Amino acid sequence: MKKTIRDLDLKNRRVFIRDDFNVPLKNGVIRDDTRIRASLPTIKYARDAGAKCVVLASHLGRPKGRPNPEMSLRPVADRLAELLGVPVAFAGDCVGPEAENAVRNAPPGAVVLLENLRFHPEEEKNEIGFARALASLADAYVNDAFGAAHRAHASVEAIVRLTPQAPAGLLMENELRYLGGVLEKPERPFVAVLGGAKVSDKIEVIENLIPRVDRLLIGGAMAYTFFKAMGKPTGRSLVEDDKLDAARDIMRRAQERGLQFLLPSDHVVTDKPEPGVPTEVLNVDSNAIGDRMGLDIGPVTVAAYTKALRDAKTVVWNGPMGVFEIDEFAHGTIGVAKAVAEVQGTTIVGGGDSIAAIKKAGVADRITHISTGGGASLEFLAGRTLPGVAVLPDN
Ligand code: ADP
Ligand code: MG
What we know:
By secondary structure, the protein is of the alpha/beta class. Helices cover 35% and strands 17% of the residues. The strands form four sheets. The chain has a six-stranded parallel β-sheet with strand order 10-9-8-14-15-16, sandwiched between helices. It has a five-stranded parallel β-sheet with strand order 5-6-4-1-7. Helix 1 packs across helix 2, helix 8 runs parallel beside helix 14 and helix 11 (299-310) packs parallel to helix 12. Bound molecules: adenosine-5'-diphosphate and magnesium ion (MG).
């Protein structure tokens, strides 16, 4: 287990916390503050532990090493202040005099948010000099940015080599505990539910899970690449033709391993992904799909997946079962979300759209762990080493 913030004495120290505030922004308005909320426990912990100043840093979007007002973290400072109930000072740069002055002038116990790390090209280049400039702002460093841990960037990798005490924050600790737990010692039956837009995004995750799970339930557009590989009619459904061999290989391995590999048996077909269009439920073997497309799993599949989840002790879910953004095609995802919420065991949901889907289903508070790590969560589940985690010291 990694050293955590609880192993560090923070009293009267200035603490630099690397957070993941990479939130969806449009015209300066935060459209989803899940990641900000997920960062609160560590920030509160540092303040309660008597930190003299809490300095927060994050990236946002892809400004490509140049300041870009559309990707400023300023709106995050305002939201953080609301959520924490304390003022949050904002520094217009993450290094140099502006950052130094903001930290120096901060009253005891203050929270200071630094501007977007990626406004400097040195961040993504993992430059040690840039890391040193960041580290010089505080006396202690904490990494709570699980969502950035799959990148060897200066604020998550180089900086830790300069501050060997670097502990994981509480969010990072939770992500490692839950995601690590399912890969290392899952309680059984262990069921994985995978869906979403593309097989190609998730091939490595499926491959890494095949030796570990008892059941694999497939939904979403991903199912159609498997269907085409099996010679079933797919109409204009989303198929990745360059992944047909990969799909066959996955099915062969699942069979060798003897696990239950479930694909939808019925689906909701229509002409186009729009609200109000006429829909029809068909068996997946039916040629009546014609040149229409499948946009959701059908009710028979929901019932089968619900049954496959009933006795699960561990569940990992990534990727919606259909185009849940449109109500007509949300039934499958909502049905499976409710089944996951009923599970008497550890349930883990990851992926931006999947989190939105469980919120839409109204069951987010009945999920054991919601992983906000996005790409990092997928890489972790794929069995890859995350540079930002590997560099953190063990306890
Ligand atoms: P996550 O963000 O949870 O990792 P993905 O990004 O992989 O999930 O996939 C989510 C997207 O997949 C959603 O926008 C949803 O509309 C889309 N999707 C799901 N099923 C289908 C389908 N049958 N056809 C087209 N798109 C689909
Ligand atoms: Mg997504």
